[in-house]
Amino acid sequence: MMTRRCAFAIALTTATLGVPAQPTLERRTEAPNADLDFARRLSSAFGHAADRIEPAVVHVTSVERVQQVRRRFGRIVERGDVVEQQTGLGSGVIIDELGHVVTNAHVITADQRTGNIADRLIVRLADGREYDAELIGADTESDLAVLRIEADGLVAASWGDSEAASVGQWVIAVGSPFGFDQSVTAGIISSKGRPSLESGRGNNQRPMFQEFLQTDAAINPGNSGGPLVDLEGRVLGINTAIASRSGGNNGLGFAIPADIVRSVASRIIENGRVDRGYIGITWNLSEPTIEPELARRLGIVGGVRVTTVMDDGPADDAGLEPGDIITRFGARTTENATRLRNAIAIAVPGAVVEVEYYRGDRRRTTTLRVIDRETGLAIASQAREVPALGVYAGNRVLEQTDRRGRVVGSFTGAEIIRLDPDGPAAGVGLEPGDIIVDVDGRTIDGAEDLADRVDDRDVARGVTIGIYRPSPTGRGGLRGTVEIRTGD
């Protein structure tokens, strides 16, 4: 009786309080037709994009020739055969029927510390054919390279408009993550105009011309160099990097925008190197964009305030002044310093470009003629010609850091800005960007000191030049010496 009574009391209380009875769980047996139709259309769109781009996507393998050695107690006691050893893998995309392939510069690099290119580059097509690739040129500052293969029946990718791409837009990434060829992942564009993962500056404040579309499409090691495409299968960017603590995909992938890729690739194909634009301005590196309050007042998203204008440079001739806020350069909006730096860099030297800017609260426009960056830097850095070496060199201050990256001192060298391809310096492998730090073991105090210390007689009998070459990764660099001798 007690049990029955308690049961009744509980039931009565439940009814009195009005607690609803538990609903019966029903399994949905079929989705509404409209939902299925939408899902099928979206799936079809992804399939269409993959079908369009996959024939143009290639697998890139870098191979280094290494001599086998036998060691005893750390010393080499026997040298063996030279063998080929895979040093890296990545992806690439065919951009024309002539066989030009765009990939990342780091994909073809055998040693990321030195920046040395692999001895052999192998390109495997979507249909399984393999070819040895010729390196047309590499640009470490944008992390792009162009290869070329001799093959028939190539399918070239189509370019999309990375400037018109919008945040939230569907995209797919195609490549060879962990060596799995022709892998396709989907996501959206998460952000635009992201600065370089090296904060836009290389070692010793050397510029890095990088900018990224951010995506949550899965990107993993091996995807580097492959395309990020829209639903029409058009290339919006080249997948380059991930932000990850584990080394794998965490939904933070980065692709170089197509407009930068096209500019760099076309100049490499035409000239074997990248001639960048220059207009003779600087801005405050610690303030990459204008203050939010000012942007709201002007009704703009952002802009870059000019701090200095080089006398008689393109910007000066166009009437730009310190304090002006640049909001557009050519076809590119310039919400931040990364966008402005790259807009100037991809402008073809000699091109006339329209610039939109604010002076005070008034919007203005002007036009200017872009000059070559090397020429501009030579002027700005008071470069001196050193005929005996066949170089133009400018002053460069190098910071010395401890193991924790703290600046503990600095010294001045002479940075090679331009060199005669047939001159003595080029003959021993020196390149623009190399910094001469001493002559015959004696340190030099900049470009003028170098010009005064080295003449034709020195080079004829032989002179030893100390060189610092910043790493392509932007971290550290290599010190070394070369001997230049033109006499018998």
Short description:
The protein has 488 residues and is of the alpha+beta class. It is built from ten helices and 31 strands.
Structure write-up:
By secondary structure, this protein is α+β, with helices and mostly antiparallel strands. The protein folds into 4 domains: 54-148, Trypsin-like serine proteases (Thrombin, subunit H, Beta Barrel), CATH 2.40.10; 158-271, Beta Barrel (Thrombin, subunit H); 277-374, Roll (Pdz3 Domain), CATH 2.30.42; 381-484, Pdz3 Domain (Roll). Helices cover 20% and strands 40% of the residues. It contains 10 helices and 31 strands. Strands 7-6-1-2-3-9-8 form a 7-stranded antiparallel sheet, with helices on one face. Strands 25, 26, 27, 28, 29, 30 and 31 form a 7-stranded antiparallel sheet that branches.
What are the salient characteristics of this protein?
seven-stranded antiparallel sheet, 4 domains, Pdz3 Domain, 488 residues, alpha+beta, Thrombin, subunit H
CATH superfamily of the largest domain: Trypsin-like serine proteases
Outline the low-pLDDT stretches: 1-19, 199-207
Total count of helical runs of at least 4 residues? 10
CATH uppermost class of the largest domain: Mainly Beta
Note the beta-strand portion. 35-45%
How many E-type strands? 31
C-alpha geometry? globular
Give me the side-by-side strand order of the main sheet.
Answer: 7-6-1-2-3-9-8
Mean pLDDT: 85
Bin the helical content.
10-25%
Structural class: alpha+beta
- How many structural domains in the coordinates? 4
